[in-house]
Amino acid sequence: MKFNTMDVERMLLDMGQGRKYSARAMQLMLMVLLQEGSTHGYHLIRRFAQISQNSYVPSAGAVYPALAYCATQGWVLIEEEGRRKMYSLTDEGRKYLESQQEKCDYLLQSLTYRGRKLVWIRQMLAEHNSDEDLKAAQEQTGWLPEFVQIRHSLKQAMFEQSTASLERQAEVVAILQNAIDQIRNLPKES
To answer: Which parts of the sequence belong to the Transcription regulator PadR N-terminal domain (predicted)?
Structure first.
């Protein structure tokens, strides 16, 4: 099953003020986290923080309504435990997640990416970048400093070509499409 990246992109909202993810994206990500086992809402919020390196910590006002909606659809079971509620994924929820697996993978990758990006932004904004600091950022994110630098260089190169003629833009597109094809043809890592 091939999914349209624009469909997933519509689920992602801007990195600025306000909500970072749509209600639908939040529902999917919460259900993915519930695959780890039954838990309380607060624990789910902390998992978002952990996955995103504290770059995204959803509010209770985003999490609990999403969980309630999932419960009305039969995807999530809510059980009272005193004053707290325990949330778990139902069999119907698991089936629904299977049908949405590629979108879920993409959304969780975006959450992880945001966290890693923030770690490197903090590193770059630091007044002194020692080799130890770069190594710590690499260990925390799993990204090589050169991987981060090449992304920035590509953005800069694209910016520099933003006023180029249509012919030059076509040349840039051909170069980048070739690179994209080569990257996508690398064997998948598990």
So the answer is: 31-98
Residue 18: in which H helix or E strand, if any?
none
Cα-trace Rg, the chain: 20
pLDDT per position as a tens digit, 78-114: 999 888 999 999 999 999 999 999 999 889 888 888 8
> Tens digit of pLDDT for each residue in 33-63?
999 999 999 999 999 999 888 888 899 999 9
Strands (E), 35-114: 39-40, 76-81, 84-89
Place of tokens 């119907």: 92
pLDDT tens, 1-21? 344 444 444 444 434 445 578
Query: Which one-letter amino acid corresponds to residue 153?
Result: S
Q: CATH for 5-115, among 2.10.10.90, 1.10.10.10, 1.25.60.10, 2.60.40.4070? A: 1.10.10.10
**Distance of CA 95 to CAs 3, 102, 155, 162, 164, Å?**
17, 13, 39, 45, 49
Cα 54 to Cα 141: distance, rounded to the nearest angstrom: 13
Query: Of 94, 119, 26, nearest to 64 (Cα)?
Result: 26
Q: What are the domain boundaries of the chain?
A: 5-115, 144-190
